Amino acid sequence: MNSYSEYIDVKSKDWQSKAINSLSQNGVVILRGIVSELVIDQINNKANKVLSNPSALGRIGFYQKDSYKKTYDGFLLGKEVVESVSDENALDVIEKYLKDKVILNEIFLKNDLGYNIQYFPYHSHTGSDVEGDVNKPFGCAALIYLHDTNEGAFCYALKSHHLKIERGKNNFLSKRQDRKEIEKKMNKIIGKKGDYVIFDERGFHGPEQPVKTSRKVLLFGYQLKKYTNNRSRTGIPIVISDMENLTDRQLDAIGVGGGTRGLYEDYHLRASSDITKKYTVVNTFIKTIIYLDLKLTNIKNFLKKNLKK
Ligand SMILES: [Fe+2]
């Protein structure tokens, strides 16, 4: 597969017009310098803590629905993520490319574990959950690379956002007659730690798989307010005090005061986990531990009381 690593430094001259141009031409842009080294290290410290243990018995930890990846609600990693995702330089590029105001769709931490399996095929978004002309740019998805990323990187078929799309059609690359042509345009988007990758969601994309290398990214997206009636794709959890440094524009862009098209509990990180066999086993185990803990405490209290007599 070809590689694409042409980044735009946000401190360079005319960076913004170059970034918008790259999105228009290729459908993707790599922005360097949005997130500082210090901030990305702080995000990594928190992400690594979350990814080291599962969420259970009140402990903050990762979610894991299958063997291949760990996930977590992105904004719950703290204000560094809230501020980076809603960075105004990035918002400028996205809003100028889409030509109007946007609202955040979703935001999550994804740790692909590198088990050499293809579980997430290349696809494009057909605007099944938005209103309006889907053959015009309506949304940009984005990633922040949490480490230098080469093997297992995000891949994008350059210029494939120009292809005509039919709303609501499941657009998996493998099902397309012209897949060979699109595959030729597929590029691995190679980036450094902290790079902010933005892409037109109508283009074909997905992670490089199968690979033996793990990958850790923040994944999110923005869509036009007018195409979504100012509603995010899902209910997005956040710690209220983590919004203290945001401007009114950033608050508006992450969806404060807006609605949602999907429920918090139906989001893919959470949905269906309570009906699987593995969950039933884990649930029984946890309830047994809690029951035994209660019994042990009762015995200790009983002995303490009676030995004093
Ligand atoms: Fe996607």
Features:
15 strands, Jelly Rolls, seven-stranded mixed beta sheet, 8 helices, single chain, 22% strand, globular, 309 residues, binds fe (ii) ion, alpha+beta, four-stranded mixed beta sheet
Draw up the topology in text:
Layout: E1 2-4, E2 7-9, H1 15-26, E3 28-32, H2 37-52, E4 69-73, H3 79-85, H4 88-98, E5 102-112, E6 123-124, E7 139-145, E8 154-157, E9 171-172, H5 179-185, E10 186-189, E11 196-200, E12 205-207, E13 215-224, H6 225-228, E14 231-232, H7 248-254, E15 259-260, H8 277-308
Parallel strand pairs: 1-10, 2-3, 14-15
Antiparallel strand pairs: 3-11, 4-5, 5-13, 6-9, 7-11, 7-13, 8-10, 8-12
Helix pairs in contact: 1-4
Bound molecules: fe (ii) ion.
The site of fe (ii) ion has 3 residues, from loops.
| Biggest sheet, spatial arrangement of strands | 2-3-11-7-13-5-4
Globular, elongated, flat, extended or rod-shaped: what is the shape? globular
How many helix segments? 8
The biggest beta sheet is recorded as: 7 strands, mixed
* Strand coverage percent: 15-25%
User: CATH topology of the largest domain, which one?
Assistant: Jelly Rolls
Bound molecules: fe (ii) ion
Helix percentage range: 25-40%
CATH superfamily descriptor of the largest domain: q2cbj1_9rhob like domain
Task: State mean pLDDT (0 to 100 scale).
Answer: 95
Overall radius of gyration = 22 Å
Indicate how many domains the architecture comprises. 2
State the end-to-end distance.
79 Å
